[in-house]
Write a structure and sequence with these properties.
Elements lengths: L3 H25 L11 H19 L3 H27 L7 H25 L2 H5 L4 H7 L2 H13 L6
Helix pairs in contact: 1-2, 1-4, 2-3, 3-4
Length: about 160
């Protein structure tokens, strides 16, 4: 992870993941919380899939971002569309749960789309897939020449 944007997106992914853990625990323990899980079993499965996707996104793999977008699209995207259609209806029975779940679904979809766009638009992933931590040693001919010149000047006599 070489870019600040990637670090920020992974931090947002972790924060949203922790938020969804709190929502799942509150739903399981029947705690009064403004956010409710859409489907308790699917929520737990999604938490583990998200953990795997975070590792793949850190490794800059497009597959991780695609899986993350697809799972969040199927889970939060459908809920977001349902909540928007309820809000647009004339005789809508609107509550704070509808708005809060729509807001959480919107945030989840924005993070998923941003992660995919960040990985797809990263030019250094395509042009230079090597890590800079090792490139200075393996690809630095200037450093090799400097070391060779210094070694040539330090010829000590041996008896």
């Amino acid at each position: 992870m070489k870019n600040l944007s990637t670090w920020l997106l992974v931090m947002f992914m972790v924060m949203f993941w922790a938020f969804r853990i709190i929502v799942a625990i509150a739903g399981e323990l029947s705690i009064d919380f403004p956010f409710t899980p859409l489907n308790q079993q699917m929520e737990i499965i999604l938490l583990f899939v998200t953990l795997l996707c975070m590792v793949l996104v850190v490794k800059r793999m497009v597959v991780g971002a695609l899986i993350y977008l697809l799972t969040y699209g199927m889970y939060f995207g459908v809920d977001l569309m349902n909540n928007i259609s309820v809000m647009m209806g004339e005789n809508a029975n609107l509550s704070i749960d509808t708005y809060s779940n729509a807001f959480a679904s919107l945030i989840g979809m924005i993070i998923a789309i941003a992660v995919l766009l960040d990985i797809l638009l990263d030019k250094s992933r395509k042009n230079n897939p090597k890590d800079k931590k090792t490139d200075w040693f393996y690809k630095n001919e200037k450093f090799d020449r400097q070391m060779d010149e210094r070694a040539d000047k330090n010829n000590y006599r041996t008896l």
